[in-house]
Specification:
Oligomer: single chain
Structural class: alpha/beta
Number of domains: 2
Helix content: 25-40%
CATH superfamily of the largest domain: tm_1862 like domain
Strand order of the largest sheet: 9-10-8-7-6-5-4-1-13
Distance between the termini: 30 Å
Bound molecules: S-adenosylmethionine, iron/sulfur cluster
Number of strands: 19
Number of helices: 15
Shape: globular
CATH topology of the largest domain: pyruvate-formate lyase- activating enzyme
Length: 485
């Protein structure tokens, strides 16, 4: 899954382009013909012109706005509200056996295995007990996601323990979507069967790039034969949906090498593909300093790779979903996109975005319509809060203003459905920024009385975050003085 709670904070500020999201046969994800207009610049020129840091908008406001004024009492008050609605539960498993040098996820590299897992499960148990004690009634889960780090760092017995901890406090809906991220380096057939037997019906594993030279350059070597074996085991275990993660922009990647990776993915035929653009932030992520900037592909090469992915996957029956996902037409994400039900949260594009999201574990984010709360990001701080009998909330954001909620809805529409309607008298300066983007062929604009309709063009889909940023005052502030919005 896209790294959002678990998602690498870094990806949230990547400057890299996103793949165009044309649907099958020139239609958009909801089946309409994609509006087109002759671009005045080539896609590469547009990318270079607009290539500035823009959030990925897995939330609005973004995590960059979180502050320590939000704490345990805010989450406690939120949890104490009665609700009959099911929840989405995210469990963060922060451990990894080794570090992949590109990685921006919140994680801990350790070889200690059960020595770190046992106390961690104890902490999760304390956190769950605190939460359950605050909920006025037992709640159901419609979605459960284990992310990381590496959830399959846990052995089978530890996985069962964690599953039982969750089910001790929550009821599972019959149609529960239970998903887990695994590292393919060390999953085996027994583990695949065990996860399925526990109740997981969706699974995701990272390929990133299948080329041995690229893999060595990022310290993550997984032979193609192992990737094929893993997919075979997941199919035998009958997971309903398999996702693979790819990254475009890794060191020593070339369009030719990436094409081979894409051909492997076409052969493996997962239901979903996440294609992230490499967020290279060596200033913030010391591990990434092991990657030389000179080894990174050029923007032209990145564009060629994303274009190739769009064409090859499109021809193989995948529909482009939102900014960075592909899914087979029969997959629930593709169906949600076609029906206009796509949402976006810290886990990326989702079908259940209207649900309250409760996050467990260090760095995990909980999301309610009027509150974000993020747990302590350091394991020590997280453990200390729980030992003191407190919810381990470190920071967050209360979202009460109507205008902020409206902007959130506008950004979500743009990011998920590539079109949005707005009241012209209230968003006049945004409209004038959009006119500049329209002149570059990124959007088409039309007016109907007091309403303006914005439709993202095929070219504009590469720069969807830039278009969404028009509705984000903090980004407009940053961009003041430059031509970009
Ligand atoms: C928690 S990991 C996936 C599960 C498992 N740990 C693994 O490595 O297979 C989440 C995903 O985030 C993506 N990711 C991590 N760091 C990134 C970065 N700097 N830029 C883009 N994508 C990144 C990778 O595709 C990775 O598979
Ligand atoms: S195994 Fe996954 S979470 Fe861990 S460092 Fe590698 S990509 Fe990041």
């Amino acid at each position: 899954m896209p790294p959002a709670t678990s998602a690498p904070a870094t990806v949230a500020t990547t400057t890299a382009p996103s793949p165009p999201a044309t649907g099958a046969a020139g239609t958009d994800p909801v089946g309409r013909p994609a509006p087109s207009r002759p671009p005045q610049s080539s896609p590469l020129q547009l990318l270079l012109k607009y290539d500035k840091p823009v959030p990925r908008y897995t939330s609005y406001p973004t995590a960059a706005q979180f502050h320590s004024g939000v704490g345990p009492a805010d989450l406690a008050a939120q949890l104490a509200r009665p609700s009959e609605e099911p929840l989405s539960l995210y469990v963060h498993v922060p451990f990894c056996r080794h570090a992949c040098w590109y990685c921006g996820c919140t994680r801990i590299t350790t070889q200690l295995g059960s020595k770190v897992v046992a106390p961690y499960l104890k902490s999760l148990q304390l956190e769950l007990e605190l939460i359950a004690g605050l909920l006025p009634q037992r709640r159901r889960l419609a979605q459960l996601h284990w992310g990381g780090g590496t959830p399959n760092y846990l052995n089978a017995e530890e996985q069962s323990q964690l599953w039982n901890l969750v089910t001790r406090h929550f009821d599972l809906e019959p149609k529960l979507e239970a998903s887990i991220e695994v590292n393919p380096e060390f999953i085996d057939q027994a583990q695949a069967l065990h996860l399925r037997a526990l109740g997981f019906n969706r699974i995701s594993f990272g390929i990133q790039d299948a080329d041995p030279d690229v893999q060595r350059a990022v310290n993550r070597v997984v032979p193609v034969e192992q990737l094929r074996r893993v997919m075979g085991w997941l199919r035998e275990a009958r997971f309903e949906s398999v996702n693979v993660d790819l990254i475009c922009g890794l060191p020593r990647q070339t369009p030719e090498r990436f094409h081979t990776t894409l051909e492997l993915v076409r052969e493996l035929r997962p239901e979903r593909i996440s294609l992230f653009s490499f967020a290279y932030l060596p200033q913030q992520l010391p591990l990434q300093r092991k990657i030389a900037a000179a080894d990174l592909p050029s923007q032209r090469q990145r564009l060629a790779m994303l274009d190739d992915a769009s064409q090859l996957l499109g021809a193989a029956g995948y529909e482009a979903i939102g900014m960075d996902h592909y899914a087979l037409a029969s997959d629930s994400l593709a169906i949600a996109a076609r029906e206009g039900r796509l949402h976006r949260n810290f886990q990326g594009y989702t079908t259940g975005g209207e649900l309250d999201l409760l996050g467990l574990g260090p760095s995990a984010i909980s999301q309610f319509p009027h509150l974000f709360s993020q747990n302590q990001r350091q394991l020590n701080g997280y453990n200390a809060a729980l030992d003191a009998g407190q919810l381990p909330v470190e920071r967050g954001l209360a979202v009460l203003e109507q205008e902020v909620l409206e902007r959130r809805a506008l950004i979500r529409e743009v990011m998920c459905h590539f079109r949005v309607e707005l009241e012209l008298d209230r968003f006049a300066s945004e409209w004038s920024d959009l006119l500049a983007l329209a002149a570059d062929g990124l959007v088409t604009l039309s007016q109907n009385g007091d309403l303006g309709l914005v439709e993202v063009t095929t070219e504009g889909r590469w720069l969807i975050r830039t278009i969404a940023a028009v509705f984000d005052p903090s980004q407009r502030e940053r961009a003041r003085g430059s031509r970009l919005i």
